Amino acid sequence: MWQRHFVNVPTEHRPTTFIDALNVCNQSLYPKVYRFLQIGATLPVTVASSERSFSTLRRIKTYLRNKTGEQRLNGLALLNIHRDIEVTNEEILNIMAKQPRRLDINL
Asked: Which residues have CB under 8 Å from 19's CB, separation 6+?
C-alpha cells in the first residue's frame, strides 16, 4: 500500500532518505510505516559517534577516578563530545544564577 502511494510520482520526486520519507508519510493513514521511518531516521548510519561517546566516558572516568556523580559525569562527557559548540561565560553564569543555592550570599 505504501509503495502504491508513489507509483505515479516521478523518480526524481520520490523520497531518497528516511527523513524525506518521514516528511511525506501521513501518520494517520500509515501509522506503522510512519513508526518504522521514525526508527530508521534515528538510527545512526555509522557506529563512530557511539564509539566516540564511550571512549570519552572511559577517559573521563579514568581521569576523575569515579568520584563524580552521574549528572556531573554526563555534563563533562557532553562538553567533551560536543566541543565544537561555543559556550560563553555569560551563558554559564545565567544558568547558575537561576539554580537555587544552599547558602544565599548577599553583596
From this structure: 41
Distance CA 9, CA 68 (A): 56
Residue 58 burial (C-beta neighbours within 10 Å; 0-12, 13-18, 19+): exposed
> Domain segments of the chain: what residues?
4-42, 48-98
pTM for this model (two decimals): 0.40
* Long-range CB contact pairs, 73-78, < 8 A, 24+: 77/53
- Rounded distance between C-alpha atoms, residue 21 and residue 3, angstroms: 11
pLDDT tens digits, the chain, 107 residues: what are they? 667 777 777 777 778 887 888 888 888 888 888 898 888 888 767 667 777 777 877 777 776 566 667 787 788 888 877 888 888 889 888 888 888 777 666 65
Ordered DSSP codes for 8-75:
TS-GGGS--SHHHHHHHS-TTT-HHHHHHHHHHHHS-SSSHHHHHHHHHHHHHHHHHTT-S-HHHHHH
